[in-house]
Amino acid sequence: MEGALSMPVGRGGRQMLMVLVVAVMMLLGYSILYPDNPTGISAISFTADQLKFLQAYALPGDFKNDTVSVTTPGPKERSKALTKHVNDACRTLNISLPISSFMLSHMHFDDKRKAIYCFIPKVACTSWKRVWMKTTGIVPPDQDLALIGRYTVHTRVPLLSATKESMEKLNTYKKFLFVRHPFDRVLSAYKDKLENVDRQSSYNFHKEIGEKIEKKYRGTKDSHGDNVTFSEFIRFISEPGHGTFEQRNEHWLSMHEICNPCAVQYDFIGKYETIKVDADYVLDWLGATDMVDGFPASDRPFHARRYDPKYFNQLSHNEKMNFFNKYLADFVAFDYEFV
Q1: pLDDT for 306-338, tens place per residue?
Q2: pLDDT reported for residue 293
Q3: Which residues sit opposite 118 in a β-bridge?
């Protein structure tokens, strides 16, 4: 865990971390829990139960009462434990988001299997969409999933927002999603969209977002957004408040705001960290193993680890804390460690 934080690690360090987080949130008065407020300013207070929940989160796994560990036997058991943890977090911390058209536009449905998949960018969603194209008959049964182009994948799979029966399906179909450590996810997005050039995307991330970051923090656009640092990127996406269109890009927007697990009861929540076994379980659960022989590997993996010194040594203590504050709901509800 070298380079992750300039504060003590362990039970005392985590308790100190949460004290700091709560203090900063109460002082600045902002949180992702209030996304509809364009100013991001809210009067935040914590009940005894909420503080107890946050304190429990701050403890190392050995001290938690309902640890969701990758060592928990089996994907079904892990999902059950994580789903309970999510529900407890939503209830205790009073996380409440509306069911929006934006959220429905991140859901694919399968009428035959009566299933819904909520996709989160940078959490193996391209692989899942390739699977969805085969299981729903968009491509022939013998189609090699690896040969389905990325543009086709992201434009041809039907969205729940486009059907009149969206709420009925949402209330009656079985539902699943996959999540990823918030830091790993945004690092993958940075490497994919800003450090490298995504030539297959019709959206020019360097021009539309990189230039804005460069202008904001350097006062110039001379580099045309081509050399935005990871530190600048984290500062940009971690700013308090509702955020601009660019700050709320789906590739780094909070997973809670995309799939809303506090308002939608998911039947299965898998993790990117255990993607192979979790995905294979879901394929069997959906009754799709006869059509898909194992979960396909990504054709463009951007390996990202939050302790990679090349990136995280760039971040100041305040930048790390601001990021944690911004993505607090994702860290706490999905039981991801910050330190």
Answers
A1: 668 889 889 998 999 899 889 988 998 999 987
A2: 80
A3: 107, 177
Contact (CB, 8 A) for 332 and 57: yes
One-letter amino acid at 203 equals: Y
Distances (CA, A) of 24 to 30, 70, 321: 9, 31, 9
Burial of 189 (0-12, 13-18, 19+ CB in 10 A): buried
Alpha helices in the chain (DSSP H): 11-28, 48-58, 75-92, 101-104, 125-135, 150-156, 166-172, 182-190, 205, 211-218, 230-237, 255-259, 275-286, 309-312, 317-326, 328-333
The number of angstroms, rounded, from the C-alpha of 67 to the middle of its chain's C-alpha atoms is 20
Pairing of strands 115-118, 107-110: antiparallel
Tokens of 334: 């999905």
- Give the whole-angstrom CA distance, residue 289 versus residue 284: 6
CA-closest candidate to residue 150, choices 250, 294, 273, 296: 296
